[in-house]
């Protein structure tokens, strides 16, 4: 089945972006023409989801250097660094953003003999390639994970790790979609995912477009459904995975993992290898973003708490590796010990040269 | 400290009720003059919380029979039964409602020799007595539980088990308030409690009025805070407790209990003995209300999900007794085995004749 939308695309001289803050009420595509607008789009979650943020970062680098005048490579390098620094400052948790910046830096470093205009073109090409690759990776993640879902399963997912969080097809939702496209009769519970309701707004929207039966539940309801035996699998995405398998993902993921273990329900993470940060020994080293409390005290601009009430808005949490039954990447399903499994995946990937 | 509001009161010929659906934006007191309006107020949660629902039910019985004409005791009995049946049909889970109806039936049965007008007066007196008793019980629950909270503790609570859920002072919040009034420096995290945000709207409002430091969190955040060691105690209320200690309370309570056990945080329930249903062997016999899915897909009238999206709105869940460290009633802190502990409490209570 064709993807029912395009999350992010490079156009001749701008980035075309589906504004996810307006979904599901409105399907509006933004035309991002400046670095400032791109950074703003990442910060306010117009584009969100670790892989999509990575692509946005790469395209942001390409966009941010286009109006550099002249052919001074050294000055161009400084401009490049300033662009990367601006993008790096938008959101701290998803490692794909930093991975994408590194990859763009490698392009710059690998084109020392070229003129500025040619480097600009190479950066655009790399960003476009990363978008294409990401869709391919999602399909491979889907294939790698689909057999973990059985006929008749009801699958719980948290937040949105779908086509909207990637260039297309999705990671956790990609696995669900691949199982559905095999003809398996499955159902999905989507945690609404407070405070910004990515589950209620985005996951339901995507799955409804694909024809996959989906039911929205408040985040506090999954435990009761597991207790009743109404959930057979959990699959979520990831924003950063430490080398030991500890996984940062949307706040509430840790809770779902604890509940799944308590009730004997298998819990899987699906993410591209670019989400794995081999430089981190464990999850305690992952920086966790805290966002404005007003996102908790207001919903769609409407206050739901007393004026002046204090609130906390921790955007992510860390699920320890021992609560994870498997991490599905484009190289297959990794299981503990994860450090060893990831090393093999990266080696495999290097040989394949994708 | 004086209670900063009155949840429910009998006035000469009507019930005065703080409309909790309008809090915290507006503090509006309803004048309930008909049985229909009383049932509607219970159904739409203008009055909510198991003990408060019990008092509303008792006052509803008193109100519902007042306009009975004549002095035919048999016909009066039929009218009385019809009134009770209407109230019993409003909400299925909180046992206090049925307990209150039973108590009113005892008044009727115990006044066989009296005329209709006198019985009407007795029913009003009983309902007023139950309101007074409930406030007294809450103070005793507070005293019984306050030593479970230590200086410097941060306490998590779910939903609202405060003065608003009772005639005043509260059960879970009564324990917190009693500890605070001992001079202990404590802080409270209030789960916002989707879908109707009783934590964000009501618990924060009450605690702010009392000067207790309170911070609202999404329901999916408590686990991450426990993981970081930022929560030392959990105290929640109850809607019905089976004789083995299995406890029905607001959806999400079970999740909090699983998280607390996983992270080694003590988990307490606070409720009057009228919430204990000795007729039930365990929690599987507790009827669980499911409410309209639109409460999940809309917040304050604003849609947060795609049009036509499916949602589930399970109002309560059951926390198994083995996840509960103690149940605080007006007779002290009961611990497992609960059936035996409750029997002793009821005996103690009978002797005291309160």
Overall description:
2 copies of one chain form a homodimer. With 354 residues, chain A is an alpha/beta fold. The first copy, chain A, has 11 helices and 17 strands. Chain A has a 7-stranded mixed β-sheet with strand order 6-5-4-7-10-16-17, with helices on both faces. The first copy, chain A, has a 4-stranded mixed β-sheet with strand order 11-8-9-15, covered by helices on one side. The first copy, chain A, has a 3-stranded antiparallel β-sheet with strand order 1-2-3. In chain A, β16 and β17 (332-334) form a beta hairpin. In chain A, α1 packs antiparallel against α2 (50-65) and α5 (116-145) crosses α6 (172-181). The radius of gyration of chain A is 20 Å and the shape is globular. The model of chain A has no long low-confidence stretch (mean pLDDT 97). At the A-B interface, α7, β6, α8, α9 and β13 of A face α7, β6, α8, α9 and β13 of B.
């Amino acid at each position: 089945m064709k993807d029912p939308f395009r999350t992010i695309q490079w156009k001749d001289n701008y980035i075309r972006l589906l504004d996810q803050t307006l979904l599901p009420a409105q399907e509006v595509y933004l035309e991002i023409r400046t670095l400032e607008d791109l950074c703003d789009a990442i910060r306010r979650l117009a584009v969100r989801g670790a892989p999509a943020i990575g692509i946005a970062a790469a395209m942001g680098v390409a966009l941010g250097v286009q109006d550099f005048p002249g052919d001074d490579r050294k000055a161009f390098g400084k401009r490049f660094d300033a662009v990367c620094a601006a993008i790096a400052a938008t959101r701290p948790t998803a490692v794909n953003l930093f991975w994408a910046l590194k990859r763009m830096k490698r392009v710059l470093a690998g084109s020392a003999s070229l003129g500025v205009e040619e480097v600009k073109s190479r950066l655009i090409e790399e960003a476009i390639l990363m978008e294409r690759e990401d869709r391919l990776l999602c399909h491979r993640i889907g294939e790698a994970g689909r057999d973990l879902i059985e006929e008749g399963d009801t699958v719980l997912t948290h937040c949105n790790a779908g086509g909207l969080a990637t260039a297309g097809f999705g990671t956790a939702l990609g696995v669900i979609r691949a199982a559905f496209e095999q003809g398996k009769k499955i159902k999905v519970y989507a945690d609404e995912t407070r405070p910004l309701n990515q589950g209620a707004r985005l996951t339901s929207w995507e799955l409804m477009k694909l024809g996959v039966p989906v039911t929205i539940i408040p985040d506090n309801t999954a435990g009761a459904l597991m207790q009743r035996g109404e959930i057979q699998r959990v699959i979520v995405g990831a924003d950063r995975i430490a080398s030991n398998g500890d996984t940062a993902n949307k706040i509430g993921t840790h809770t779902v993992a604890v509940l799944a273990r308590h009730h004997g329900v298998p819990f899987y993470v699906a993410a591209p290898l670019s989400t794995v940060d081999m430089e981190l020994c464990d999850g305690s080293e992952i920086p966790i973003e805290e966002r404005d409390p007003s996102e908790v005290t207001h919903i769609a601009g409407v206050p739901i708490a007393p004026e002046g009430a204090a609130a906390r808005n921790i955007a992510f949490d860390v699920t320890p590796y021992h609560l994870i039954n498997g991490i599905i990447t484009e190289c297959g399903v990794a299981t503990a010990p994860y450090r060893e499994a990831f090393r093999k995946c990266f080696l495999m990937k290097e040989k394949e040269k994708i």
